[in-house]
Design goal:
CATH superfamily: Spore Coat Polysaccharide Biosynthesis Protein SpsA, Chain A
Number of helices: 9
Number of strands: 9
Largest sheet: 9 strands, mixed
Structural class: alpha/beta
Distance between the termini: 25 Å
Radius of gyration: 17 Å
Order of helices and strands: EHEHEHEEHEEHEHHEHH
Shape: globular
CATH topology: Spore Coat Polysaccharide Biosynthesis Protein SpsA, Chain A
CATH class: Alpha Beta
Strand content: 15-25%
Length: about 260
C-alpha cells in the first residue's frame, strides 16, 4: 500500500519539523511526500531544498489559500491513502503510518482519524482533542474529527471531491461533513494521539475569524442539502472550551522525533 502525505506551506520554517516527522515514520509501505509551497519569500524555500531528494513532488507557485494548496497536492497524489500535514504540525510518534495503514487493510474502510494534542513551543500540551467514535448525532452537537489526523483513500477524493474553497476557513469541516455525514463513508477512529498541532491557526486568529468560521460551518450544512446544524455555530466552539478544561493534567511533549536530513 502507498501513502501520500501533502504538506502545504507558506513562509513557515517549522516545515522542517513537520517533514522530519513524516520521514521518521516506521512502516513497511511506500511513502510519497508532496509539498505545496504557496510562494514563500522567507527562509522556507532554502529549507525545502534540503529535502529535495526525499520529496516526490514540490509544487511552488501562488495559490488561493491553504485549501487550494491542499487540493493541488491531492490531485498530484498517487498513493492509495492520502494524509495532510500542515507545516506547523507534526506526527506524534514514529508509528502513526503503521497504525493508520492497518485500518485501511479493510478494503471497505474509506477514512480514518485519531486524537490530537495542541503543543506550544515550550513543549507543553495545552489542549487535548479526544475525537471519539463517529456519530451522526454528534455532528448536530458541533462535533468533527481533527482534520490533521484525517486520512482518506484517494479513490474517495476522486469520487466525492476535495476541499470546497468557497469556505476559506471551514473547508475542512465542510469536507468531513460531506464525506462522513452526507455520504456516510465507512470511517474508523484510532483511539490514540496521531498529531501534535501548534496552537493558533487561521480559524482562531481573531474574533472575526472565529465568527466567520462558525458561520461557514452552518453554511456547510446548507450547501450539502442537509437539515440541521442550527446549533453548530454555538456548540462547535463550546466543545473546544471543554478540551481546554484541564490543561495542567495533560502531559508535556519533551521528546522530538529524529532529524532525518
Amino acid at each position: 500500500m502507498k501513502i501520500s502525505i501533502v504538506t502545504p506551506v507558506l513562509n513557515d520554517t517549522r516545515v522542517a519539523r513537520a517533514l522530519d516527522s513524516v520521514l521518521a515514520q516506521r512502516h513497511r509501505h511506500t511513502l510519497e511526500l508532496i509539498v505545496v509551497d504557496g510562494g514563500s519569500t522567507d527562509g522556507t524555500p532554502a529549507i525545502l531544498d534540503r529535502y529535495r531528494n526525499r520529496i516526490a513532488a514540490l509544487i511552488s507557485e501562488p495559490d488561493d489559500g491553504i485549501f487550494d494548496g491542499m487540493n493541488k497536492g491531492i490531485r498530484r497524489a498517487t498513493g492509495d491513502v492520502v494524509g495532510i500535514l500542515c507545516a506547523d504540525d507534526r506526527y506524534s510518534d514514529q508509528f502513526v503510518f503503521r497504525d493508520v495503514l492497518r485500518a485501511f487493510e479493510d478494503a471497505a474502510v474509506e477514512a480514518c482519524y485519531g486524537d490530537q494534542t495542541y503543543v506550544n513551543e515550550q513543549g507543553r500540551t495545552v489542549r487535548h482533542w479526544r475525537a471519539g467514535a463517529p456519530s451522526r448525532a454528534a455532528w448536530h452537537a458541533g462535533w468533527m474529527p481533527p482534520h490533521p489526523t484525517f486520512f482518506v483513500r484517494r479513490r474517495t477524493y476522486q469520487e466525492y471531491g476535495g476541499f470546497d474553497t468557497r469556505f476559506p476557513i471551514a473547508a475542512d469541516y465542510e469536507l468531513m461533513l460531506r464525506l462522513l455525514f452526507r455520504h456516510r463513508i465507512r470511517t474508523v477512529h484510532l483511539d490514540r494521539v496521531l498529531v501534535h498541532m501548534a496552537p493558533g491557526g487561521t480559524s482562531t486568529a481573531s474574533a472575526a475569524a472565529i465568527l466567520q468560521g462558525n458561520r461557514e460551518a452552518f453554511l456547510a450544512w446548507r450547501s450539502n442539502g442537509l437539515r440541521g446544524g442550527w446549533f453548530v455555530p454555538v456548540l462547535k466552539p463550546a466543545r473546544k472550551l471543554l478540551q481546554l478544561a484541564r490543561p495542567r493534567l495533560l502531559p508535556s511533549v519533551s521528546a522530538e522525533l529524529p532529524h532525518t536530513t
